[in-house]
Each structure stands twice: as structure tokens, then as C-alpha cells.
Design a protein that fits this description.
Number of strands: 0
Number of helices: 19
Radius of gyration: 22 Å
Order of helices and strands: HHHHHHHHHHHHHHHHHHH
Oligomer: single chain
Distance between the termini: 11 Å
Largest sheet: none
Strand content: under 5%
């Protein structure tokens, strides 16, 4: 077992454990808050987050990813990175405060103005975060890295629940987010454990920008793709429809945002160290892609099967209009899972420009479809436009990877088709089995259907594993071993 492998295995284990704990906290939060607050409150929060993320993402020079990519990082470079972050965050806070009135008038929502002014403080708190967190990720020391995230998440969830119970309005969500950001920034200095001071050197600043310039373009395009639909729905259909859209998106992307994207924190630094060994990088990418799609397709199939009953029972009947949106957006979740597996490979190969250009293509497709589809079919049309754009990007990136990594098209196609076919078959089997069982309602019916679906999906994976191409054969058994012993993950093998 290689040193890199054992570190990757431990990192994967910490990511999984932390994300499970964080997801349990978030599930408790949203189940409670959704009953205490109206859908309109979630719509207001979505518009606030859109404005924050617009400034944050479109001005982000990718300092953390640049530090991970760098061969050596001196204390002077860290201090310069922190100075850049402080100056940028202070500027963003002032811009948002000054523009809050214009934003409120644009969305015809005066309640946005004080919310945006208060949330501008989140930029300052984010800018205080220690840049040495990137070095923890680079060295695959994720124990402290993820402890910081969990501390911030715990503080945010606890404060949000208490304030939502007391206030019953959107300010509980705003205050909880600020408290979580403050705890996260303070904890980062404990985790990084290295001194910083305000300083600037042009040479060090230029080195940070050299790699990060294409990351900034890519981040801006991804932001507009991920959140542009929220802004358009909020502007054209109002905050209540945006509230339904936001909740459907949150439920559909649950696995993607809380596990898959965070695993990419491990994959990117690991792939940078495998870049010189192309055969190992090929094997690692295909197996990871297949493994992530196995979990993502399982989750999407479960949503198709159980969304109606689960939303009514868990969130209340007031949220049932979100159910049709979930059916569309869970398909978007599958494509974004593939993107979370693919992005780190392209960045590790120094292809940030390629990823940025394809993200612009994705944005252009969504921009062309979003307005006509939303105006004709409402929020369902917006979800359809997002799905089409996501499929276009993943198709283009797949073709690029086949050429860049020398992948076999059949192996890559099998990584996609296998979990999708098994998920569809499992949904069909569970639906048919439900018709043969005695009539059941409520939570009991949801539990029985979920159990049948999980059993059918797992059995289908094991039965079909032997017919996969050589690069993926026995991957399901590898996934099961990885769940029990993360140090046995794919990248640990010297022979991979």
C-alpha cells in the first residue's frame, strides 16, 4: 500500500463520516424550519444567497485551488493570499451594502434590502478564514479540515433552529448563516496553526493569479448556471414559486452537494499527485465516476419512487407543489455527480481553460432555453432548461476526456449506463411489488417501498457487475469494501 494511498483512504473516510454527520444535522434543520417558516421565506433566502454568491464567485481568483496546485507554498505566499482575501472580502461587503437598494427594486422586493445589508458581513467573516486550510487539503490532512466544517455547520444548525422557533421568519436563517461563518473562520486558525500577517508582494500575487485566472472564469460561469435559474424564477414568478423551486433543488441535490462535491476535495489533490502516472489516473477516474454514479442514481431513483409521500409526510402538504420539480431536478443531480468526478481530473491535468470554456457553453445553452421554457411551463420549464444544459456540458467534457486520457468509449459509457439501468429496473420492481402488497398509507408505506427499492437496487448491482468491462468489473465489491474500510479505496493500490 502506498503512502499516498493510505492518506487518500483516510481522507475519504473522514469526508464520508463528516458529511454524514453534517447531513443529519441539516436534515433535522430543514424538517423543522420548513414547518415553522412559509415557502416565501425560503424564496427570500434564495435571492439573498444568489446576490452573495454572484459577488463571491465572479470575483473569486481561485486562491485555494492555486495553493493546492503549487509545488511549494512559503509563509510569505500564505500571508499574501490572506491579504488578498481580506481586501477582496471588504470590497465585496461594501459593494453589496451599497447595491442593496437597487437589488431590492430590481426584484420588486423591498424586504431584500435589510437582509442583504446584514448578510454583507458574511464576506468579512469569509475573508478572515486562514488560507492554510488549502495546505491541509493538499497534504490530505482532512481530519482538521473537516472538523472546521463540522464546527461551523453545528453552530449554524443549532442557532438557526433556536432562532426559527423563536422568530418564525427569514431572519432566523440569516442570523444562523452568519454565526456558522464566524465559527468557521475562528476554527480555521486553530486548524491551520500557522501565523499570518497583512502583506503584499507583486510577484507572489501574480503567481496566485496566473493559475487562478481561468478558475475565475470557470467559477463565474458555473455560478450563473447553478444560480441563474433561481434569480430568473424569483424575478418572473415571485418568491413563493422560488421557495418551491429552492426546496425541490435542495432535496434533489442532497447527495451531490453534501457528499459528492465534498469528495472532490479529496480527489483533486490526489489526482495532482497521480498526474504523471496516466494509467493509474485513467483507472482512478473511471472507477470513481462509476462509484459516484452508483450512489447518485440510487438516490435519484428513490426520489422518483418516494418523493410524493416523503414530502407530504416530512415537510407538510404545503410543500407538495415542489414534487413535480423533484422529478426533473434529480436527473440534473446525476449529471452534476459526473461533473464532480470529472472536474478534478481536468484541473489536475492543467486543463482549467477547457473546463472554463465548456462551462461557458453550458451557460449559453441554459441562457437560450431558460426564458422561453420558464415563461411557457413555469418552474418545470426552468428545471428542464437546466437539465438540457447540464447534459450538453457533460457530453462535451466526456469527449474531451476520451481524447485527453486515452479512455475507451465503451468503458466510459458503461460507467454511466450500468447504474442508470439498474436504478430504472429497481424503481419498476418496487412499483410493481407495491401493487401486490396490502394497501398501506403513511410512513409505513414509505418505509416498505424504500426497503424494497434498496434491496432491488443492491441485488441488481451485484448481479450485473460481472458483465461490466474490465476497468469496472468488481467495482461494486470494491465500493462495499471501501464503505467498511476506507483505506482500501481505489487509489491506495500500488498496482492500480
Amino acid at each position: 500500500m502506498s503512502v499516498l494511498g493510505s492518506r487518500v483512504g483516510r481522507a475519504v473516510g473522514w469526508v464520508i463520516a463528516t458529511k454524514v454527520a453534517g447531513r443529519l444535522l441539516d436534515t433535522v434543520q430543514w424538517l423543522c424550519v420548513a414547518r415553522w417558516l412559509a415557502p416565501e421565506a425560503f424564496g427570500l433566502l434564495s435571492l439573498v444567497m444568489f446576490c452573495l454568491l454572484a459577488l463571491e464567485t465572479c470575483s473569486n481568483p481561485g486562491v485555494q485551488l492555486t495553493l493546492i496546485q503549487s509545488k511549494e507554498v512559503s509563509p510569505e505566499v500564505l500571508s499574501t493570499a490572506w491579504t488578498v482575501s481580506l481586501a477582496r472580502s471588504a470590497g465585496l461587503a461594501l459593494i453589496l451594502w451599497a447595491a442593496s437598494g437597487l437589488i431590492g427594486r430590481f426584484f420588486n422586493e423591498p424586504r431584500l434590502v435589510p437582509l442583504l445589508q446584514v448578510m454583507s458581513l458574511s464576506f468579512v467573516l469569509s475573508g478572515l478564514t486562514h488560507p492554510g486550510m488549502a495546505l491541509l487539503a493538499k497534504a490530505l490532512h482532512f481530519r482538521r479540515y473537516l472538523a472546521v466544517e463540522l464546527m461551523g455547520r453545528t453552530a449554524q444548525v443549532g442557532s438557526t433552529l433556536w432562532l426559527a422557533w423563536r422568530w418564525h421568519n427569514v431572519w432566523a436563517l440569516i442570523a444562523g448563516a452568519l454565526i456558522g461563518a464566524g465559527v468557521r473562520a475562528a476554527a480555521s486558525f486553530w486548524a491551520a496553526a500557522s501565523p499570518l500577517r497583512v502583506r503584499w508582494r507583486w510577484r507572489e500575487g501574480a503567481s496566485l493569479w496566473q493559475f487562478g485566472r481561468w478558475l475565475a472564469v470557470m467559477n463565474a460561469a458555473f455560478f450563473l448556471f447553478f444560480y441563474g435559474d433561481d434569480a430568473f424564477v424569483g424575478k418572473m414568478l415571485g418568491t413563493q414559486e422560488l421557495g418551491y423551486y429552492t426546496m425541490a433543488y435542495k432535496l434533489s441535490m442532497l447527495l451531490v452537494t453534501e457528499l459528492v462535491y465534498d469528495l472532490s476535495q479529496v480527489l483533486y489533490p490526489a489526482y495532482t499527485q497521480l498526474d504523471a502516472a496516466l494509467p493509474r489516473l485513467q483507472t482512478a477516474y473511471v472507477r470513481v465516476l462509476h462509484g459516484l454514479l452508483v450512489f447518485s442514481c440510487a438516490y435519484a431513483g428513490g426520489l422518483w419512487l418516494l418523493a410524493g409521500d416523503a414530502v407530504g409526510l416530512g415537510l407538510g402538504r404545503a410543500w407538495l407543489p415542489a414534487v413535480p420539480l423533484i422529478y426533473w431536478l434529480c436527473l440534473v443531480g446525476i449529471t452534476r455527480t459526473a461533473g464532480a468526478a470529472t472536474g478534478p481530473v481536468l484541473l489536475a491535468r492543467g486543463a482549467a481553460k477547457t473546463l472554463a470554456l465548456w462551462s461557458l457553453v453550458q451557460l449559453a445553452v441554459m441562457g437560450a432555453l431558460l426564458a422561453p421554457c420558464t415563461l411557457r411551463w413555469g418552474t418545470l420549464g426552468a428545471a428542464g432548461a437546466v437539465l438540457c444544459a447540464s447534459v450538453v456540458m457533460q457530453s462535451g467534457v466526456a469527449v474531451h476526456l476520451i481524447r485527453r486520457l486515452g479512455l475507451r468509449p465503451g468503458t466510459l459509457a458503461s460507467a454511466w449506463v450500468h447504474p442508470v439501468v439498474v436504478a430504472v429496473a429497481a424503481v419498476a420492481m418496487a412499483t410493481q411489488a407495491a401493487r401486490l402488497l396490502p394497501a398501506m398509507v403513511g410512513a409505513g408505506a414509505v418505509v416498505v417501498m424504500a426497503a424494497i427499492y434498496v434491496g432491488a437496487y443492491g441485488l441488481g448491482l451485484l448481479l450485473t457487475d460481472r458483465w461490466l468491462p474490465a476497468g469496472l468489473r468488481d467495482n461494486i465489491r470494491w465500493l462495499l469494501r471501501t464503505v467498511r474500510q476506507p483505506q482500501q479505496a481505489l487509489l491506495v493500490s500500488e498496482s492500480s
